[in-house]
Amino acid sequence: MNKKTIAIDMDGVIADIETHLITFYKEKHGIEISREGIQGLSEEKAFPIKEDLHSIVNSKGFFRTIPVMPDAVESLRLLQENFEIFIVSAAMEFPVSLGEKFEWLKEHFPFIGWENIILCGSKRIINTDYMIDDHPKNLDSFTGKPIMFTSFHNTEKENYLRVNTWKEAVAFLHQTL
């Protein structure tokens, strides 16, 4: 029997980019940004010095040091028992991130083989049964079952099945078996 497939985004889904950006922003500008204060805002509005946000995410070491989302490692291990998992990241937007993302995955998710890691530009070509992503633009063209992982910038979006935590994601996916 073939396992169902899941495409899982990195930033904002298994990698806690929100915490990382808040920390970097405070270190660079001394500006305290709260999680509560950025809910429902775009990245540009949440972190108002746009050219600085761009330089932060393009800085060496940024993607290599992102914290892991709570329960992500255990959840992916659990899901891997019944699903084939692909990590899919639109990494081409930030070319410095390519090697860093691969190294980060090897450290935190060593059980995901290199052949199941897709660092790409557009995710339109992804053809799995499910896709878990925090950006509606990646879910809009997806032909399988899209699942939105809650992030500060998507709290106002209501057109997708939403999961707020990895425990919720696992519970939903296990009920589809």
UniProtKB/TrEMBL annotation:
<protein>
    <submittedName>
        <fullName>5'(3')-deoxyribonucleotidase</fullName>
    </submittedName>
</protein>
<comment type="similarity">
    <text>Belongs to the 5'(3')-deoxyribonucleotidase family.</text>
</comment>
<dbReference type="Pfam" id="PF06941">
    <property type="entry name" value="NT5C"/>
</dbReference>
<dbReference type="InterPro" id="IPR023214">
    <property type="entry name" value="HAD_sf"/>
</dbReference>
<dbReference type="InterPro" id="IPR036412">
    <property type="entry name" value="HAD-like_sf"/>
</dbReference>
<dbReference type="InterPro" id="IPR010708">
    <property type="entry name" value="5'(3')-deoxyribonucleotidase"/>
</dbReference>
